[in-house]
Every structure is written in structure tokens, then in C-alpha cells.
Amino acid sequence: MAETLTTDGVPRGQQVLDRLVALLDLEKIEENIFRGVSPSHSPVRVFGGQVAGQALVAAGRTVPPERGVHSLHAYFIRGGDPSVPIVYEVDRIRDGRSFTTRRVVAIQHGKAIFALSASFQIAEPGIEHAEAMPDVPPPDALPSHGDLMTPELKAKFGRIADRPRPIDIRYVSEPPWLSRESGPREADNQVWMRADGTLPDDPLLQVCVLAYASDMTLLDSVLARHGVYWGTDNVMGASLDHAMWFHRPFRADEWVLYDCVSPSASGGRGLATGRFFTQSGELVATVVQEGLLRIVS
Question: Does the predicted TM-score (pTM) go above 0.85?
């Protein structure tokens, strides 16, 4: 089966998504110990969404399947080395009647690079309410990420522009690499996104793919306020911590709106919050991340 090629010549589609699924399918090397790898086209550091997704898989592999993850809190401690495997050690903190708690440490070269705590819960009835989804154009009415990349931008971004993308992203807001030409704007960013293919019917995998995708455009809301962007300005950045709450069931291979804003930036750090909505308007997840953001002279 050939990979799907878009108008920009970059491979996308089911085979690229299958690579992500394989990336999240960790090798069990001992009780509570798992091993993951990085894709061959990785940049200098391991992508933060990858290590978060893999750590969540490791935690979920030690939890009964009827208990779904409802929250995670994570810290990025060191930059990951994509050339060597990552070992994930799971600590079974608590197994209660309704909740299960796990702590995961990702290790490379004998040192912790990432730490995650995740909580799982059995399905329970209760009170319900949620914020309404913003009024935005549907994803099919918007160009893909590849369609927006001009030859000039491809030359500027280099091999990053041609990296296979398992997540299809459609920008509602003007993409930061375009809006930077007109200067600072509001500290926000809106995109539709979905896995670019069909995922297996595994609730844990759906959550892990969304965790992977949640790290892709969140800090763009910080940069938009200052009219700068990765790769086109002297911006040095890295994720510092990441938290997610999962409110309702969803499929990561169906369109979700990622509505992001940045309430503050100071001290070389930027804070961003995001909300995921299904096309039917259901709020399914909330994200908060702080990132290191330095303008290098």
C-alpha cells in the first residue's frame, strides 16, 4: 500500500499514522518496565508529545481496561536523545475502588528525562455541564498544513517542512508563520486536528494520540502575541510541564477543535491553555502547558 501524497509532495495518510501507532506500542521488558523508540526522522530532541504519549501508554498497560485515564500531569526534565531507546519505569502508586494512580519516569543514559503522574477512573454517572464551542469554520472548508507551506517557507524551514505528519492540522487562526509578517496579534491559536487515518478501537490509544497531538500547536498562542515563530526567528523553546484532563469519550481520528490561548508570558516562560471540542460541540479535554521561550540575540 502506497503512502498518500498531498499536493506538497509530503507523505501522509494511513501508513504514516500506523508508524505513530507502532511508536506508541511499547516493548515490555520487565514487570512495570517498558521501552520505546523514536522515529528515524526525529529532530535534535525527542518530540515532547511522543514521550508524553509513550509514558501514558506505559501507565495504561498496568491498569485494568475498564478504568479510563481522566488526567495527567507531567514535567519535561531533560531533552530526549532520539538516537537511543527510552526506558519507562511505572510505579503503581494506588489501586482504589474507583481510582487508580500511576507514576512514570522516562530514563535515558541513566538519567530521568520526563516524569508523569496519571489518574484512571471507572465510569461513573454525575452532574454535567461544559463550556460551549467557539463558532468557527468547519475543517473541510480550511486548507491543510501542507497546502499553506509556500516554496519560500519550505526553503526556510528545511527538512522540518517535509517531515511526515500523522496528524492532519487545519488552521482556523492565521498560522503563526504567516501572521508574523504583519506583527503581533492576540495571544490565541485555533486549529482543527485529527489522526490522518483510522485508529484501532482502543480507548487508551485514542487518549495517547490526543496527548501526542496536544503538544504540537499549543505554544503557538504565546508566540502569536509577539509576532515570532520557531525556525523563522531566533526563538529557543522547550516544553517545561504539561497537564491534561479528559472529560468525555472521543476518537482522535475524528476532527477536534483545539482552541488555545495564552494568559501570560514572563521570566523566559510562556503559559498556554487549550480546549478540545468535537465537531458536535462537546468539550472532551482541557490542556495547560508552560514552555521555555527565549529570544536569542
Answer: yes
